[in-house]
Amino acid sequence: MDDHLYFLLGDYATCILSGAIVGVFSAWFFDPSWGMISAMLVGMVLGMIVGFIFPGGICLHYFGLFELMVPLMITTMMVGMVVSMAASMLSVSPGIAALSGAVIGIFSLRLTYRWNNNISGVVPGYGDLNCD
Amino acid sequence: MIDIKNQNKWDRFSFGYDLMVAAGAEKRWKPAKLSVFSAMKKDKKILFMALGTGLDIELFPPNLEITAIDISPKMLERAKDRIAAYEGDLKASIMDVHDLEFEDNSFDQVFTACTFCSVPNPVNGLKSLKRVLKPGGELHMFEHMGSSHFPMNVMMKAMSPLSSMIGPAMDRDTVGNVEKSGFKILRVENIYMDVVRTISAVAEK
After folding, report:
1. Strands B196-203 and B133-144
2. What tens digit of pLDDT does each residue of B110-140 get?
3. Which chain B residues have a beta carbon less than 8 Å from that of A13?
4. Is 0.90 topped by the overall pTM?
5. pLDDT tens digit string along B144-182?
6. Which of B36, B139, B195 best tests the A interface by mutation, with the highest count of A CBs <10 A?
7. Predicted complex: ipTM over 0.85
8. How far are the Cα atoms of A17, A47, B121 from residue B162, in angstroms, in the given order?
9. B167 DSSP assignment
10. Alpha-carbon dihedral of residues B17, B173, B133, B164, nearest 10 degrees?
11. Among A18, B10, B82, B139, who pairs with A51 as Cys (CB 3.0-4.6 Å)?
12. A89 backbone φψ class: left, alpha, beta (φ>0; ψ -120 to 50)
């Protein structure tokens, strides 16, 4: 497998898996006894911690550091926030939580790809002068 | 004088360093690093700062004379086989960038790779590199640093106190530090967002 495809699949697998895991965790951890705002804030933080331990800890080793860390941060934060908030208002099934997390994972990854494309390359203001 | 606290930190980290970066990050950064190291020239005196476990050595062009330093004896111990395998003259020694043992104006080129995220006083470290560079000498860096974009900037700042206890800081303003230390920046390129960048600069004296 060429490197581009390897990293592309790794990026998607990491974001989908981390989104799904954080989604299921958030749906299990929070219930309607939580206030919506507190569930949202605690969910964001817990989501990031859970996502970075697994699958983050393993995937960062195989697929890259910052290229994964950034979409992983956004995925786990958003999934933690959204699913916790939903779980504080109504009962969320593990299947729906996993699916929502996976979809948010894909969305977050696409967002960072687009963001990266917009700012990659030579930084304006720092020219393109060669040393030679 | 060696910063013992920093040395101990990297000695401890040497055990898991390859495990952490060799399979994913190094492979992913290989094209950008190859491009940076392609500036190494045969007729130049080259200093490579923070050789670590020597993961970058296979990306160096062959047949060069390179002086490398690292603060961690355990990192260099792990780099031994890679140093021996280099097809050129690569000498590595234990040294702290804040206290380089080289004469002023000793080198034509200095290269760094993921180094200034970890130097305790980056501006002083860069000034030290400027001292050993000849006037007009080149600084080529491949570095990760803090982001200026929300929410990455907030997240990286939040993670930095923890990450710097066990390894690198995540929120360094390396481009700003290069400028503050008196180099003239020629080129900055974003490799991944504004978090992983290459910097080319010259020592103006």
Report:
1. antiparallel
2. 999 999 999 999 999 999 999 999 999 999 9
3. none
4. yes
5. 999 999 888 998 998 899 888 888 999 999 999 999 999
6. B195
7. yes
8. 25, 18, 18
9. S
10. -30
11. A18
12. alpha
